[in-house]
Amino acid sequence: MRDVVAQMHRWWAEGEPFARATVVATWHSSPLPPGTSMLVGPDGAAIGSVSGGCVEGAVYELAQEVTAGGRPVLERYGVSDDDAFAVGLTCGGVIDVYVERIDPAGFPELGEVATAVAAGEPVAEVICVAVDGADPQGRLGRRLVVTPQGTSGTLGSGRLDAAVAEDARGLLAGGRTETLRYGYDGTRMDEELTLFVSVHATPPRMLVFGAVDFAAAMARIGAYLGYHVTVCDARPVFATARRFPEAHEVVTDWPHRYLRTEAEAGRTDDRTVVCVLTHDPKFDVPLLEVALRLPLAYVGAMGSRRTHDDRLRRLRATGLGEEALARLASPIGLDLGARTPEETAVSIAAEIIADRWGGSGTRLTSLSGSIHRQQPMRPAAGG
Question: Are 246 and 221 in contact (CB under 8 A)?
Fold first, then answer.
């Protein structure tokens, strides 16, 4: 996403119009999630994808038409009853793609968005992608850029901008890209306007505790999955950047103290994952006591079943209840038969992904139905 925005900014700065096609909604086995974009540049170059190749040709042609004509289009692509391989998704999915022309006059806020994305600062772009019925006020294609500090642009009215900004900041905090619906003046119970909120948030954090070989492999796969990876250990001889070159930062501190400090400073959230690889009670029990009291996405701890049982006994002695203990993934990872640190890291990453999206970890060959789970659409806050 950062590379796409950077390319948009380069073309935008040159003053030449180009097109952006964005997936704004998906159903069934759609290959790519909402927010995925494809650019069609002034020279005809195509960058990115909206479907992994299924409908790119049709979207490319539409993008060229929109660049020339200027008016945005919301187009649905799915399996055709007559020919599923013509202009459709062979996987059986359905996607809505919003295609718009981008130029400095129509999107003067793009420089602000590009600067924020490059700096790793949270920013949301809200676009009106559909209007129910006539559109005498020209709402289609309007946009509002939202940051934690303020807004720029407008969707057509102050009340609508205020309502949308409030909800967009909630999505920014959670790092979620979603479609929301409002009335013309921002009433959340009406649905005249369909707004797509594209969130560029700071990466979620992966905190890996224990400067061991497994941590080095975990740092590599965590960074590959898009996490900001921190490795923490109380032993300075082991907690070095040289041993963990793929980690974004290496910290020497007592694990429980570091996690508590980060949480109190607001640097953890419900996207943060914690991997405890120390399997030493003097480190992991105080750490897990802190972690299991926080609203984190995932908390896993390495160790044998015997270590796990002893760990639970010690954690119960700290006052943690069964509901909190049930959140602990221990022994950590899925049953892949892993042996090496790299294989174990894949096992842990697979469990984190399954936990995030509600996957079972079962082989797809033994299942039926859609292979892509859909995130439920959340209503606008207060709706």
Answer: no
